[in-house]
Recover the amino acids of this structure.
């Protein structure tokens, strides 16, 4: 996206921009991340990269991080290999299924143009629950 | 357009026991689908069956069925469940006995869909050139062969569709793909061909969305504060249409929320690449479109599918040693520093971390679920000690007895957990995912005394 020099940036937790849910497949954790608007999706593709996720989970993730794109849902899916202490019943971790990993990722602080927080485009409007 | 309504009433064995009844009584439905089999459940069931030949299926299913069977029979609601476990014949006998007790036996026709259980044929399969290599680790099954406890192929929807064609109204399967119980009634009602990949994919998308119960109706949702109430959570319902489009919703006057975001989060839950492999089709999760059609109603359209994969997934389980956990609470000023001292003293008493195959401790309240987020020190932490080892006796004699003594012999502000009981080693049954050739597995439909290959 194009950014005007006058557009100030803000530091916010990722949850202001995205939703996420995590789970497991063996010793691999998955984190599906959904952007709250088209503009955020474009930003996310550029900034919420496998390297970003790997860095954030460096104490946990001993393998590589893969990313898949689902533009229809404004989503990307991360696979964090070797991240669950052996996985399943072999794991000694409290959260052996990585169910809390999405919340940890969403707590990551990112610096973004302020306008990105206010982008209410077509998709964002459509995704709101209609008023009863 | 022809329509059918499918209701899920649980995301795992142990989910809300009131869900089956609430799904049946809360509004119109045509099918009730029930899931009982997690990845390592089959090992538990194999053991139960080894002790008692008529066991080997989740007994909770009968309690749930008791709640709903008379209403389902009266209203023509069909029940599809994988509650057959490793003994679908035993499960059928119990269902038929229950139907007699409830006075509805003449209107209940039970079908069994089996053929998934490969445990008795394991050596034959290995000899015939099915190596059953661990998909995650690349290890050969020979490394754990003597310790294998169960082996089941994930089968598709075909057997359930045949059962419906034969007029069954309670269909009990062994291991089938979780989404197959939802796909099957759609294929049956709409007469979809098994190679109509887009429609079959739509059924898989529907099944994937609802197979974890309330996780698509407002549970585990990032924007949790938008959910007005988590009380009496509404379980998911799919209103499926002939063209493969569907609406995800829940009964009125239930807790939860169905929005584009609650459904989208569930679509990306526990998936890998967006080409989602199932025994029936490769469903393209990157083709699906979601739209808020009304309050608590999300329309799902545009699913595309590709031909089913060559191989079937097999879930094996094996004995992988023993493990134990012990917990102590440390509170007051400098809780974290004190907890570290406690851990040091504990491991010294327990012979050191290196004495076990794996050993660790975590501070619940600080760094257990994920690296620390808190910006100031916690006022209290729960120290969780954990070990895994091949030697059960070592865990019980060297690890377990040394937890509680730390309460008297270390720092102030420490207490044990009253209801924890004495720490003991418990068996680790681990999961072994593998692939098998389609030709090596035959799904079977059992109706009365007849057996039909599918």
């Amino acid at each position: 996206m194009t950014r005007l020099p006058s557009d100030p940036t803000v530091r916010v937790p990722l949850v202001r921009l995205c939703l996420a849910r995590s789970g497991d497949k063996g010793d691999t954790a998955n984190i599906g991340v959904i952007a709250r608007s088209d503009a955020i999706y474009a930003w996310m593709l550029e900034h919420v990269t496998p390297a970003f996720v790997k860095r954030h989970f460096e104490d946990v993730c001993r393998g590589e991080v893969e990313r898949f794109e689902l533009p229809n849902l404004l989503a990307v899916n991360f696979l964090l290999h070797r991240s669950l202490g052996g996985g399943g019943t072999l794991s000694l971790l409290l959260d052996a299924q990585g169910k809390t990993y999405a919340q940890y990722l969403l707590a990551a602080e990112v610096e973004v143009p302020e306008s990105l927080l206010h982008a209410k485009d077509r998709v964002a409007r459509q995704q709101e629950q209609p008023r009863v | 357009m022809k329509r059918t309504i499918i209701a899920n009433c649980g995301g795992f064995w142990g989910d809300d026991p009131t869900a089956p009844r609430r799904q049946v009584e809360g509004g119109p439905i045509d099918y009730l689908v029930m899931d009982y089999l997690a990845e390592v459940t089959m090992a538990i069931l194999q053991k139960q069956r080894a002790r008692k030949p008529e066991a080997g299926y989740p007994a909770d299913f009968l309690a749930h069925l008791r709640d709903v069977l008379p209403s389902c029979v009266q209203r023509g609601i069909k029940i599809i469940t994988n509650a057959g476990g490793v003994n679908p014949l035993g499960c059928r006998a119990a269902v038929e006995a229950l139907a007699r007790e409830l006075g509805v036996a003449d209107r209940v026709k039970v079908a069994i869909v089996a053929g998934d259980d490969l445990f008795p044929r394991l050596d034959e399969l290995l000899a015939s050139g099915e190596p059953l290599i661990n998909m995650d680790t690349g290890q050969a099954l020979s490394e754990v062969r003597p310790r294998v406890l169960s082996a089941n192929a994930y089968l598709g929807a075909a057997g359930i569709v045949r059962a419906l064609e034969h007029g069954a109204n309670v269909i009990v399967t062994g291991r089938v793909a979780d989404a197959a119980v939802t796909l099957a009634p759609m294929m049956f009602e709409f007469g979809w061909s098994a190679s109509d990949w887009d429609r079959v994919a739509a059924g898989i998308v529907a099944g994937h969305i609802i197979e974890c119960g309330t996780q698509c109706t407002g549970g585990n949702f990032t924007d949790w504060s938008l959910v007005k109430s988590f009380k009496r959570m509404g379980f998911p319902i799919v209103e499926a249409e002939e063209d493969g489009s569907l609406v995800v919703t829940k009964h009125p006057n239930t807790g939860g929320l169905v929005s584009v975001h609650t459904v989208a989060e569930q679509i990306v839950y526990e998936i890998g690449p967006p080409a989602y492999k199932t025994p029936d089709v490769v469903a393209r999760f990157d083709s699906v479109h979601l739209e808020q059609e009304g309050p608590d109603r999300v329309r799902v359209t545009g699913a595309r599918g590709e031909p089913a994969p060559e191989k079937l997934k097999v879930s094996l389980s094996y004995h992988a040693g023993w493990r134990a956990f012990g917990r102590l609470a440390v509170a007051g000023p400098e809780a974290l520093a004190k907890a570290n001292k406690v851990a040091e003293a504990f491991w010294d008493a327990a012979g050191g971390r290196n004495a076990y195959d794996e050993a660790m401790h975590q501070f619940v309240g600080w760094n257990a679920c994920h690296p620390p987020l808190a910006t100031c020190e916690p006022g209290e932490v729960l120290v969780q000690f954990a070990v895994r080892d091949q030697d059960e006796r070592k865990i019980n004699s060297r690890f377990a007895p040394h937890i509680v003594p730390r309460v008297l012999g270390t720092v102030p502000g420490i207490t044990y957990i009253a209801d924890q009981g004495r720490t003991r080693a418990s068996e680790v049954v681990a999961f072994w995912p593998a692939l098998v050739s389609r030709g090596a597995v035959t799904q079977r439909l059992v109706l009365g005394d007849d057996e039909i290959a599918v």
